[in-house]
Amino acid sequence: MKLRVMARLIQIQRTLVRHRLDGLVRATHLYRPLRVLFYLSPWTWFQRRRSDDRAVQLRLALEELGPIFVKFGQALSTRRDLLPADIADELAKLQDRVPPFAGSEARATIERSFGKPCNELFSRFEEQPLAAASIAQVHVAALPDGREVVVKVLRPGMRAVIGRDLEVLHALARLAARWWPEARRLKPTEIVAEYEKTIVDELDLMREAANASQLKRNFAGSQLLYVPEVHWDYCRTEVMVMERIHGVPIGDLERLRALNVDFRVLAENGVEIFFTQVFHHNFFHADMHPGNIFVLTDDPRQPRYAAVDFGIVGTLDARDQRYLAENFLAVFERNYRRVAELHLESGWVPRTARVDEMESVIRTICEPIFDRPLREVSFGTVLLRLLEALRRFDGQIQPQLILLQKTLLNVEGLGRQLYPELNIWQTATPVLRQWMRQRISPLRLLRDLRAQLPDVLDALRAAPSMAKRLVAQVEKGELHVPVDNTALEALRAEVRAAGRRRDWLMVAGFVLLAAAVFFSSY
What is the pLDDT of residues 225-237, one digit of tens each? Predict the structure, then answer.
């Protein structure tokens, strides 16, 4: 293990001890080889117990440990069904109350990125940040033509900090892969690699601007979701400028109630947005914690979502997308055998697993959650139970689906806060059925054929010349086709044996014929 990784682990340990959270780590099996650090540490011996409660200490520790840990707390904050109320309330502060960095540093980053003074770029720039997040913070400004915008600026030194913590995660994943019996199934190294791609993408604000533009295009004319406009002339790797929106934070339930917002419509729209992004657009906002979601209340009976922070988006390949859609529909229809078959067909479970046994397990887990409102159902719990149950069939974690699972849990957390009576099955099923109908419609098939026709024609035009070249190479002995010699030798031996049998039969037949002729002459 690298020295800098060991140093970071010791720093993490010191932070946890200072906030009286070291017991959490000592209870983690993965840290058992390193627990001697706790027992030999002077901080453990002499640290006095703080008066603050555990929730405050957890939030402060995550803030101190940096962006990766803050994002972990943000994800947890939406799962009030899995956390005590005091911890959920405190972690919710991580969504928009991360300590800011100095406005003068933000101004310096902007001027370095554009090579000109800030007052030449904006007619107004407020150094006091509007909001601070783990990776960047946002300032209010105005363009020279007077349009109000927000300027997102990357935190100084983020690449070095995240690079170091990613090394720590990789080191822990390698330890888990080596010593943890569940590692082959849960794939810790692949999960960390998938997370690394996600977090590194967040450090490029040009990529985030492109994500925002794509999402805005996908929902153009929609009354479900509004995405602010990107001002491309003012975007750089460390700076992004977008239209400023004025909405109510999704977590401000009291204000939404005072405005008579229809929470049922809001919750149902959230589910529809999620399934539309995943299946119709195959491009989904994958960081939907409450700090990134606002509500436009021009019409309280038909409230509209507005999203910000597009650093994390997800896509699926066509195969995973189809299997997921069919899995959802099969669950909605209580066709548990089909769910089991899909897990086998997709390779998520080895083909040696028995379909009837999987069907029984899935039925046991899913049947109790039907016809019940969201307040009585936890998809997080169902997901955990499914993963636990599939262990007996050697089911493996699919790293490419982790972002989707995270987003689904965020959507559930929002729905649980807004409208606990929501029936997610009734809301999601029409969206999925429409997508499945569109996939097999004649219009879709014709559109796909038209898109692929140029490639097919090019291949047909190239086929004769390619065939001639292959024949010429074979004739010159320049092309060697690999053959399974074992199978070929077996075939040759069988042919030779058949030939010998044929020869003996011919000899025997000739002898019998000659004998018959000889004896018939007498």
Answer: 999 999 999 999 9
428 Cβ contact partners less than 8 Å away, ≥ 6 residues apart: 271, 272, 275, 328, 332
**Can you tell me the distance from the alpha carbon of 193 to that of 160, in angstroms, rounded to the nearest whole number?**
17
| Alpha carbons 120 and 336: distance in angstroms, whole number | 63
CA distance 440 to 443: 8
Query: Which residues partner with 97 through β-bridges?
Result: 132
Amino acid letter for position 405:
Q
Selection from 403, 387, 390, 384 nearest residue 360 by Cα? 390
Task: Please say whether the beta carbons of 269 and 224 come within 8 A.
Answer: yes
**Please, which residues bridge with residue 296 across strands?**
304
Catalytic residues: 287
**Of the candidates 286, 278, 316, 8, the residue with the CA atom closest to the CA atom of residue 166:** 8
Q: Give the dihedral sign, CA 439/443/448/451.
A: negative
Please tell me which residue, 162 or 213, carries the higher pLDDT value: 213
Q: Which are the contacts of 176, defined by CB distance < 8 A and separation ≥ 6?
A: 30, 183, 188, 189
pTM: 0.71
Which DSSP helix (H) or strand (E) runs through 16?
Answer: helix 3-18
DSSP readout, 68-94?
HHHHHHHHHHT-TTTS-HHHHHHHGGG
- Give the residue among 293, 288, 268 at the shortest CA–CA distance from 431: 268
DSSP for 187-202, please give it. Answer: -HHHHHHHHHHHHHHH
Q: Are 275 and 145 in contact (CB under 8 A)?
A: no
> Residue length, the chain?
522
- Tell me the C-alpha distance between 71 and 62, whole Å: 9
Q: In terms of Cα–Cα distance, which of 78, 157, 143 is closest to 417?
A: 78
Q: What confidence category does residue 51 fall into, taking pLDDT thresholds of 50, 70 and 90?
A: very low
Cα distance between the two ends of the chain: 100
Residues facing 240 on adjacent strands: 152
Spell 20-54 as b/e; 16+ CB within 10 A means b.
bbbeebeeeeebeebeebbeebebbeeeeeeeeeb
Q: Which two tokens stand for residue 67?
A: 């962006």
